[in-house]
Amino acid sequence: MLTRVRKPVEARHTLGGITRKLGKEKAVLFERVSECATPLVTNFIFSRQALAASLGMEEKDVIPRFQRAMEKPRPCKIIEKAPFKENVLSRHLNPLKLFPIPTYHERDAGPYITGGILVAKDPETGIRNVSIHRIRVFEDGVMSLLILPRHLDLCLRKSIELKRPLEVAIAIGVDPFTLLSSQAILPFGVDELEVANAMREGSPLKLARCATVDLEVPVDSEIVLEGVIDTLDTRMEGPFGEFPRYYSPEAARPTVKLSAICHRDKPVYYSILPAAREHLLLGAIPREASILANVQRAVPSVKAVHLTYGGTCRYHLIISLAKRNEGEARTAMLAAMVNNADIKHVVVVDKDIDIFDMEQVEWALATRFQGDRDLVVIPQIQISTLDPSSAAGMGTKMGMDATAPVGSLEHAFKPIAIPGYEEIDLKKYL
Ligand SMILES: Cc1cc2nc3c(=O)[nH]c(=O)nc-3n(C[C@H](O)[C@H](O)[C@H](O)COP(=O)(O)O)c2cc1C
Ligand SMILES: [Mn+2]
Fold first, then answer.
1. 341, 41, 9, 344: which is closest to 174 by C-alpha?
2. Fewer CB atoms < 10 Å away: N or C end of the chain?
3. Is residue 272 lining ligand 1, measured as CB closer than 6 Å?
4. Whose CA is closest to 371, among 400, 334, 406, 329?
């Protein structure tokens, strides 16, 4: 399901436009982008099904396997040889001259690297950390990036205290296990690459040492940008069209000073269209895995959770509950809300509703929910800063209990059914 675009395409806007049109359908390989010799691949995670296929798994197995991998990460083997070391450039380092780096949205500040995993080490423990960052590339090859207050930020603060530069390696074009694991919600000190390795039952993830920094990246990386983060020499970064489909504003941010650009012979550049399914799902799957485990700790009868596309795979959560006691729905929604600051609206439904079918979820709201009785509103609490309706990250959370009373699914809330419906084979009659 990979479509090739052979005609030349502009990296500015046109490539993103074509990708967006195919966003829910197909992976795309752009063979010729803005006179650049390197092709660009994008959008291979265009649905949950496509993600599962890329992992060689059934859709239903993805979350349980991700949960197991997070619980039991597996150390990676490091080998010397790697295709990305076939070409190690150390002078005139400018990613814009080598790779087709897109400018996506109207008000974006410029071209951005969006599909690279950034590897760094905790300067105290030497434990690796992996995360994805939007990285603006300037005409002169200097890059500035957004580092939210999570693990890379912790590494950076420690490096400043120790007065040592923080080395980074940005690997572009990695396997989907690594991409997904980079988004795992883990305690600081757990190496996301070891989670990726644990998830790859059968074929282990091998790492190779970088050329100019003391870091390891997946052996099969197409491109590796190596350097150090400079927090003193900042540059403007943003505006940038983000996952909620709004722009996030500009600010002065740290820069990356490159020491090498490594790539395979004939590399393929990988990029993620912001706010596309690929971007949303990379966040949703690891979040669902963590939210489910946490909510089940509070309410074991919770069966599954779904972060919806309309809720940008961050703000809207549907919970499936095999309710045994009244009150479980409220406990579950509150557990989800405190577990993840981004979750803003939660709907809890009974086990007979398919939580991935939003028409069914709406039907449950229409027929099992009363606003005065089943609504929980929590004002003035932390929500996503990227939600433009928030007041500097403060807002209101809302939970809707659309479950029927315990025991009523067989009586007052018994959906209509036609006996023998499932077995009817239309071919026999038409
Ligand atoms: C396409 C994409 C772009 C992202 N951009 C950023 C970013 O610019 N800054 C940031 O801090 N996190 C960004 N993230 C989220 C982090 O990569 C993610 O939260 C990661 O799990 C953080 O890792 P950590 O827990 O080790 O800190 C992005 C995620 C994706 C999928
Ligand atoms: Mn981490």
1. 41
2. C
3. yes
4. 400
Residues, CB-to-ion distance under 5 Å, ligand 2 = 129, 151
Helix (H/G/I), strand (E/B), else coil: 188: coil
Q: What percent of the chain has pLDDT over 70?
A: 100
pLDDT tens profile 34-46: 999 999 999 999 9
Among all bound ligands, the one having the nearest atom to the CA of 284 is 1
Check pocket membership of 128 for ligand 1, CB cut-off 6 A. Answer: no
Q: Is the entire prediction scored with pTM above 0.85?
A: yes
Cβ atoms of 379 and 351 closer than 8 Å: no
Tokens of 1: 């399901």
User: What is the atom index within ligand 1 of the atom nearest the CA of 132?
Assistant: 17
340 lines ligand 1 (CB under 6 A): no
Q: Ligand 1 centre from 130 Cα, in Å?
A: 9
Closest residue by CA, ligand 1 atom 21: 183
Coil/strand/helix, residue 230: strand
3-state SS assignment for residue 409: helix
CATH code linked to domain 71-271: 2.30.110.10
- Which of 3.40.640.10, 1.10.600.10, 3.40.1670.10, 3.40.50.720 would CATH assign to domain 299-410? 3.40.1670.10
Domain regions of the chain by residue span: 71-271, 299-410
